[in-house]
Write a sequence for this structure.
């Protein structure tokens, strides 16, 4: 009989709300690319939808959630990590019939530790100031900022053997929404992102 393990379960919620102080020299599309740590130096990469840089207001109102399970050391690992946010711009003018690659305009990080230590483990409608990265495209007098919300919701503990844990990871990996994302996901190697991923517009 395998050794039993107590696993914590919780839900990570991340919302990309809106942006300000964004003026570009050329028209194009703006989007947010963000990265979540996934253990073994891996990470999950996600993109928001693209919005015209000439829009009167840059509003995404998109949410991403992960139902997670992991041993206590996995939670301690998450506490030490950060979510990396990138503001990106893409020209709407195709090159040789294809859309060009995006360009990085700004970058910022939010530590998960700040979420763990916040009341109710929630940071709501927080303005995150970014470090400008491209003055050839960006001409705003102030650094760009994005408004985000982050939340952790704890669930009941899960008890299982090592065999059951591996089987659960295998089954959840087959249905994990992040495995098809361009940046890749280490769900099979790192149990903290074990269940499901979903992107929704609010």
């Amino acid at each position: 009989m395998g050794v039993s393990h107590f696993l914590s379960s919780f839900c990570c919620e991340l919302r990309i709300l809106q942006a300000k102080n964004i003026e570009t020299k050329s028209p194009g599309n703006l989007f947010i690319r963000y990265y979540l740590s996934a253990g073994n130096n891996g990470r999950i990469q996600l993109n928001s939808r693209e919005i015209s840089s000439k829009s009167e207001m840059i509003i995404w109102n998109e949410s991403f959630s992960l139902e997670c399970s992991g041993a206590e050391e996995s939670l301690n690992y998450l506490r030490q990590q950060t979510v990396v946010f990138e503001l990106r711009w893409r020209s709407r003018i195709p090159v040789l019939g294809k859309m060009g690659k995006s360009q990085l305009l700004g970058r910022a990080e939010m530590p998960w530790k700040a979420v763990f230590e916040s009341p109710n483990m929630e940071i709501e409608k927080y303005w995150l100031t970014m470090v400008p990265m491209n003055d050839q495209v960006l001409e705003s007098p102030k650094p760009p900022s994005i408004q985000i919300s982050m939340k952790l919701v704890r669930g009941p503990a899960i008890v299982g053997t090592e065999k059951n844990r591996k089987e659960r990871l295998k089954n959840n990996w087959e249905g994990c929404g992040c495995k098809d994302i361009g940046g890749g996901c280490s769900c099979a190697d790192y149990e903290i992102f074990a269940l499901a991923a979903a992107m929704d517009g609010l």
